[in-house]
């Protein structure tokens, strides 16, 4: 059985090591080519948390299946009681599949997650400064402000992508426009 030869993707800016190449076999086993050992989805989740990049290829076809494996990791984490994604968010996300907005969603989510990660880092920095200068005191004020900023960002995001999220005002406007359209159609 011949295997495809892959050129490893270029490391992202700031990465010091190229991505780890992982092969997934038909028996669902994952093989880390860097350590020459079989690994689990939990091992891959740990690599993500450590900032280590990896790609996963189907061992038989050579197809890049990284996205599917990352999705599997999320499903596994969610099923272990580590729920991170609210049900309403999952429903909205599913609603975007096949929608005209589908092509915009990935870029938006990447930017939103990037902003969230940046705020998380700012919060960590603020906590370290506070902990270093004030003993064991915890900066609740800073954390509350970051939380408010995150919520406001997500509210703006959902209002951009889900027109019905805007509430009754938008519903009233939509109803009026529908009535006007019916009236115009009836007069023709």
Short synopsis of the structure:
56% of the residues lie in helices and 9% in strands. With 188 residues, it is an alpha+beta fold. Strand 2 (30-32) and strand 3 form a beta hairpin.
Features:
188 residues, alpha+beta, 2 domains, 4-stranded mixed beta sheet, flat
Rg for CA atoms: 23 Å
The low-confidence parts are 1-13, 135-139
The main pleated sheet reads as: 4 strands, mixed
Shape: flat
Tally of separate helices: 6
Structural class: alpha+beta
The secondary-structure element order is EEEHEHHHHH
Beta-sheet strand percentage?
Answer: 5-15%
Average pLDDT across residues? 78
Beta strands, count = 4
Our count of domains comes out at: 2
Question: How do the strands and helices of this protein lay out in sequence?
Answer:
Blueprint (H helix, E strand, L loop, with lengths): L19 E5 L5 E3 L4 E3 L1 H9 L4 E5 L7 H14 L7 H10 L8 H30 L5 H22 L6 H20 L1
Parallel strand pairs: 1-4
Antiparallel strand pairs: 1-2, 2-3
Helix pairs in contact: 1-2, 4-5
Notes on the structure:
- With 188 residues, the protein is α+β, with helices and mostly antiparallel strands.
- The protein has 2 domains: 20-79, no CATH class; 87-187, no CATH class.
- Helices cover 56% and strands 9% of the residues.
- The protein is built from 6 helices and 4 strands.
- The protein has helices at 41-49, 66-79, 87-96, 105-134, 140-161, 168-187; strands at residues 20-24, 30-32, 37-39, 54-58.
- It has a 4-stranded mixed beta sheet.
- Strand 2 (30-32) and strand 3 form a beta hairpin.
- The chain starts with 19 loop residues before the first strand and ends with a helix.
């Amino acid at each position: 059985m011949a295997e495809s030869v892959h050129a490893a993707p270029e490391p992202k800016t700031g990465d010091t090591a190229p991505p780890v190449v992982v092969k997934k076999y038909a028996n669902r086993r994952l093989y880390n080519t860097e350590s020459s050992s079989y690994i689990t989805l939990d091992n891959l989740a740990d690599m993500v948390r450590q900032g280590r990049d990896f790609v996963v290829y189907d061992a038989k076809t050579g197809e890049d299946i990284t996205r599917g494996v990352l999705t599997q990791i999320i499903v596994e984490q969610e099923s272990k009681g580590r729920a991170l994604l609210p049900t309403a968010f999952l429903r909205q996300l599913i609603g975007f599949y096949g929608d005209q907005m589908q092509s915009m969603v990935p870029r938006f989510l990447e930017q939103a997650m990037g902003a969230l990660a940046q705020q998380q880092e700012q919060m960590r920095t603020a906590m370290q400064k506070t902990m270093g200068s004030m003993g064991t005191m915890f900066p609740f004020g800073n954390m509350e402000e970051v939380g408010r900023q995150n919520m406001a960002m997500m509210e703006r995001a959902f209002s951009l992508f889900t027109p019905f999220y805007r509430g009754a005002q938008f519903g009233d406007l939509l109803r009026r426009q529908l009535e006007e359209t019916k009236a115009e159609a009836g007069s023709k």
